[in-house]
């Protein structure tokens, strides 16, 4: 069993309030959940208007599949928003 984790920092220049930011977060999370079989949540920077930190997790039978899933999610998100930073980790048990 392999657990793949990824933390993304996203810039949302159009967000002028926390309400605007929540709409962007909800949209990204809903699209990722409907397209990929992963867990996704806002994990940090909840009080900053234009910075979004998302955590993505996937469980797979091998490291290649977990990494492939995370890279697919990254490509999908980066096609729609500006990504500032990415950190990934694979944990094998």
Overview of this protein structure:
The protein is α+β, with helices and mostly antiparallel strands and 93 residues long. The protein has one domain: Alpha-Beta Plaits, CATH 3.30.70. 37% of the residues lie in helices and 40% in strands. The chain has 2 helices and 4 strands; from the N terminus they run βαββαβ. The chain has a 4-stranded antiparallel beta sheet with strand order 2-3-1-4, covered by helices on one side. A hairpin with a 6-residue loop joins β2 and β3 (51-60). The model has no long low-confidence stretch (mean pLDDT 90).
Keywords:
single chain, 93 residues, alpha+beta, Alpha-Beta Plaits, four-stranded antiparallel sheet, 37% helix, elongated
The major β-sheet equals:
4 strands, antiparallel
Give me the Rg, rounded.
13 Å
Number of strands: 4
Look at the structure and give the CATH class.
Answer: Alpha Beta
SSE pattern:
EHEEHE
> How large is the share of residues in beta strands?
35-45%
Number of helical segments?
2
């Amino acid at each position: 069993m392999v657990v793949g984790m990824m933390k993304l920092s996203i810039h949302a220049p159009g967000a002028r309030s926390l309400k605007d930011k929540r709409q962007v977060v909800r949209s990204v999370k809903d699209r990722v959940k409907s397209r990929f079989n992963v867990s996704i949540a806002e994990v940090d920077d909840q009080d900053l208007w234009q910075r979004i930190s998302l955590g993505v997790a996937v469980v797979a039978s091998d490291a290649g599949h977990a990494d492939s899933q995370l890279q697919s999610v990254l490509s999908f998100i980066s096609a729609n928003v500006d990504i500032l930073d990415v950190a990934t980790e694979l944990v094998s048990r």
